[in-house]
Every structure is written in structure tokens, then in C-alpha cells.
Amino acid sequence: MKHLDLFSGYGGFSQACGETIGFSEIEKNAISVLKYHYPNIINYGDINKITDLPDFDLLTFGFPCQSYSIAGERKGLEDLRGQVIYSVIKILRDKKPKYFIGENVKGLLSHNQGRSLEIILEELCESGYAIDFEVLNAKNFGVPQNRERLFIIGKRLDICQDII
Question: Of 17, 65, 125, 160, which is the active-site residue?
Fold first, then answer.
């Protein structure tokens, strides 16, 4: 399965998601780690400037959480960091991968009385995906930390046999 990883950080999704065909990362330390571990994989850089991508089956993204986190200012979709989800949606609409996995903080559930998540989910559905979401805690998967994260998964509607 060919995989594109957005907001790659240090490549967590790439360690588990098949053949990674590219990254989108702008943080220089993370880029150094990615280049070291994946020297032959292209970094497409700033998600807002990506214009041409090869085909892929799975899109993964851990979009910036500062806009939705209870530890931040919670500006949500009014914050430029919060708005990058629209660049993800543009890629989904343009490339139409079979699947996607998105990740963010649990605070996205309650941000703006749940309206921010509702807007994001509506946009993902309108992009042609059946979606589901759930909060998972790393401690329940053998990781020695109590870290709750919201995961949003999608499967392209034209290949759905069952609703996710």
C-alpha cells in the first residue's frame, strides 16, 4: 500500500503504514531525522504549497493541535495552524486515496462546543469518504504514557462495502 504522510514529525505513521512515497514536514529537526531514516523519500515541504503529488492509497496526517488543545489559546479554525486541515481536504479531493487516518488532540471534540469537529467531519464526508472517529489512549496499546488522542479514519465511498 502506497502511503503519503503529512505533518510527519519524526515519521511515526511511516513506521507502520506500508510503502511511504512522501512526507510533508517543515520543522528542520524533524526533517533531519526523516532524511536520516528515509533518505530516498521526498519531502514535499509546506502542505499549503504542494501542487503535484504521485498517486497513493493511504493518507496519514497528525495536523497541528495547538489550535484545539486545552493547553493552547483554542483559536481553532480561526488560527492559521487550525486552517491547514483545509489543505489536507484539498489533497483528499484532488488525489482521492482509498483511505486516510487523521490524528489530533482530544480537545478537538469539545472545541467550540464540538462545532469545529463537526465542520471538519462534514468536509471530509463531502470529499467522498465514510468516516468514523474515536479517542484512543496510548497506555492501552503498550506505550508507557497516558496520552489520549482523537483518531479520524476514512474510507472512500466508492470502495465501501460496509460503513466503517
Answer: 65
Other Cβ atoms less than 10 A from the Cβ of 142: the count is 6
Domain 62-164 class, CATH top level:
alpha beta
Phi, psi of 41 (to 5 degrees): -105, 135
Of 104, 106, 107, 102, whose CA–CA distance to 89 is shortest?
102
Task: Check if 17 is active-site.
Answer: no
pTM check: above 0.70: yes
Domain ranges of the chain: 1-46, 62-164
Give 64-107 pLDDT, tens digit per residue: 777 777 776 777 777 777 788 999 999 999 999 999 999 988 98
How many Å separate Cα 70 from the centre of its chain? Answer: 19
